[in-house]
Design a protein that fits this description.
alpha+beta, 4-stranded mixed beta sheet, 14 helices
Length: 379
């Protein structure tokens, strides 16, 4: 079947699709069964259906996903469709069923007239993701690939004959290959160019940091489920609105309360120990590795003493000892609690600027520009 596509220059109200693999349906309202067909696994690209997406945008959903952005009046599918039709200068009618998508800078439009079945047929047959020039699999290996595979097989064979001490077997064992002189026939089994090293041991807590942070997001998902946008990434809505989310100032009051000033002054609530960790990292824009927290016990103890109302010095001391112990999971739990506190109030893309994060084995820190931090208290 031939599909007559129209290629057009840029249409401002559709430019938010540029640079994405999304297609968008424009036309008469669909029934639930038709909406489900747009999401069929047979369709190789995601399809936006604006009425379904925009009806989710209650005031609370909008504020959570786009903090600090004003929700425009009359922001609905029909208003947007009318604007698009106006930019086509009357060439489209309200009865037309269109699929629009970008191929590079070129806008591709398919008009299925009044036939929804043609919409689905077009999406299945003509909307495959752009070819990248690379295949996922190749059954023919290049000469270099064959040589590399041969070297790997030799390394594996050599490793099988090595006896590894129990101490090394339980650690992070690594090896590298030293360049060796060309092999003679007699030297075929020589493995002296293999150098084995024990990699640097990371504190066990480092390995659980990412796990705890992922779990924090999972824990909060159930609480924010009704606030998450479905069927469309938030950044596409922002492009449609031609707006961006600006990071809010954060204010720490004299009572050590935390407020996002420009997001309706929403308060971020967390327990004394997570708050201690948060304030500590907020004071250290350079970042601090978990394994070096032991060097900051006094500072952490001082912050905790100001934030916590518990007057049991022994319990407070024990909490800081656990927090700075690289063999204890306490610091990961507290960083996870900080992440939960922020993602309960704003979406993760915004929240990640305020909570503690960092690569495994590297410094942890808060990426927020410190010019956005307002201290009303003394630490």
């Amino acid at each position: 079947m031939m599909f007559n596509e129209i290629k057009s220059g840029d249409i401002p109200s559709l430019s938010f699709l540029k640079g994405t693999n999304y297609a968008m349906y424009i036309g008469p309202e669909l029934n639930p069964k038709q909406v489900q067909l747009l999401k069929s696994d047979d369709i190789p690209v995601p399809v936006l259906y604006l009425p379904e997406i925009l009806e989710q945008l209650s005031e609370s959903v909008f504020k959570y996903n786009f903090p600090g952005v004003s929700m425009p009046e009359n922001f609905n599918a029909e208003t947007i469709y009318e604007q698009i039709r106006a930019e086509f200068e009357g060439r489209l009618t309200p009865e037309s069923r269109l699929i629009v998508k970008y191929n590079g800078d070129v806008l591709i439009i398919y008009d299925a007239k009044e036939s929804f079945s043609l919409v689905i047929s077009y999406l299945i047959n003509m909307c495959s993701p752009a070819y990248t020039g690379q295949y996922k699999h190749s059954f023919r290996k290049s000469k270099k690939e064959r040589e590399d595979a041969f070297q790997i097989e030799k390394i594996i064979d050599a490793c099988e004959d090595l006896e590894i001490e129990p101490d090394y077997a339980e650690s992070d064992l690594r090896f590298c290959i030293r360049p060796s002189a060309p092999e003679s026939v007699e030297e075929e089994s020589d493995t002296s160019h293999l150098l084995f090293r024990r990699g640097p041991k990371e504190p066990p807590v480092e390995k659980s940091f990412d796990k705890e942070m992922s779990k924090a997001l999972e824990d909060v998902q159930a609480l924010i489920q009704d606030l998450l946008l479905k069927g469309c990434p938030p950044e596409l809505i922002l492009k449609m609105l031609n707006q961006s989310v600006k990071l809010s100032r954060i204010r720490i009051t004299r009572q050590y309360k935390i407020f996002l000033v420009d997001y309706d002054n929403v308060e971020i609530k967390m327990g004394p120990l997570p708050k201690t960790v948060f304030l500590f990292y907020l004071r250290h824009p350079e970042g601090v590795a978990i394994s070096y927290l032991q060097n900051h016990k006094r500072e952490l103890r001082d912050i905790y003493g100001r934030v916590c109302t518990n007057d049991d010095p022994e319990k407070m001391k024990e909490s800081i000892e656990r927090l700075t112990n690289p063999l204890d999971n306490s610091i990961c739990e507290k960083c996870a609690a900080i992440k939960k506190a922020f993602t309960l109030k704003v979406n993760e893309q915004v929240a990640q600027n305020y909570f503690v994060h960092g690569e495994q084995g590297e410094k942890k820190g808060i990426s927020l520009d410190r010019n956005l931090v307002e201290w009303e208290c003394e630490l």
